[in-house]
Amino acid sequence: MSAATLPALVLDTNIVLDVFVFNDAAAQPVREGLSARRWDWIATSAMRAELERVLGYPQIMPRLAFYQLAAADVLAHFDAHARQVPAAAKAPVTCSDADDQIFIDLAVAHRSILLSKDKAVMSMARRLLALEVRVQKTLQA
Q1: Would you place residue 138 in the very low, low, confident or very high pLDDT band (cuts 50, 70, 90)?
Q2: Is residue 2 very low, low, confident or very high in pLDDT (cuts 50, 70, 90)?
């Protein structure tokens, strides 16, 4: 099955951290699904840039050290698993957190599942469902 025929996923930065840094048990289905190529994780260069910026935050760096990871390791996972696509046009809905808008725009453009634990995104779940986007905190095993 080609990537284009797999169910599309958009992962916000916190979910990416849960999957590739924090080894969060709730992120295990995402980790396994990406490794088994059951999902088409789509992302933009701006999403990668945000992840790179977040990996340099003072509160994240000790966590990377604890898990014996470097920012480059996490970015390598991103590069290995995410299919980079062009940035999407602005969606017809606007998130109260401007940093989350790129994830919403991409999910709407591709009618994908959007994985996020962000309150601003979660509060939009109904409106996004009307645009054929399912907002979820995690994937089912």
Answers
A1: confident
A2: low
Indicate the CATH number of 3-136 among 1.10.357.140, 3.40.50.1010, 3.20.20.370, 3.40.50.300. 3.40.50.1010
3-state helix, strand, coil in the chain (%, to 5): 50, 10, 35
Alpha helices in 11-131 (DSSP H): 13-20, 28-35, 45-55, 61-66, 71-81, 101-110, 119-122, 125-129
Domain locations along the chain: 3-136
How many Cβ atoms are within 10 Å of 135's Cβ, its own excluded? 23
Chain centroid, CA 72 distance in Å: 17
Closest alpha carbon to 43 in 73, 3, 84: 84
* pLDDT above 70: percentage of residues in the chain: 96
For residues 104 and 60, give the distance between their C-alpha atoms in angstroms, rounded to a whole number.
24
Structure tokens at 35: 């490794």
Residue 74 token pair = 């996490």
